[in-house]
Design brief:
It is elongated and about 50 Å long. The chain has helices at about 5-10, 15-35, 45-55, 60-80, 85-105, 115-130, 140-145. Helix 4 packs across helix 5. The longest helix has 23 residues, at about 15-35. By secondary structure, it is mainly alpha-helical.
Length: about 150
Amino acid sequence: MKNWLTKSLISHAGLEATVLRLPIGLILAAHGGQKLFAWFGGYGLEGTGQWMASVGLQPGFLMALLAGSAEFFGGAALMLGLMTRIAAAANVLTMAVALLWVHASQGFFMSAHGIEYALALLAATVSLMIMGGGQYSLERYLLDNGFLGENHDN
């Protein structure tokens, strides 16, 4: 009997999952790096936490840590195709909060800080959560080579 972890890793997607995972993972990891480490012109945990508190996401430091971690570590996991559905789910939640809490009042277009960009990332992460890592993922390699117990059925 397959355990829940093995079942969550099985994906019948092909190259399309990789084509989506790599750029979305890179975008998320870069934004997470801004929040966590002040990379790429970001404000780090302190600055991001202060901003999050100013828009009502309290406690700001914790919210910055959660969002930054979901984006950075989840983005890295997406690029690798490791725990894809879990990493995507964490970012679905993060993007839903960003869309509804921060961007919804600004309209649609990104130029006005509207929902456009958050909506695109939300749609992409929902898609990855549904389809999984696909054929060209680290999780598929681990499953196919018995590193997670029994081999899976295709």
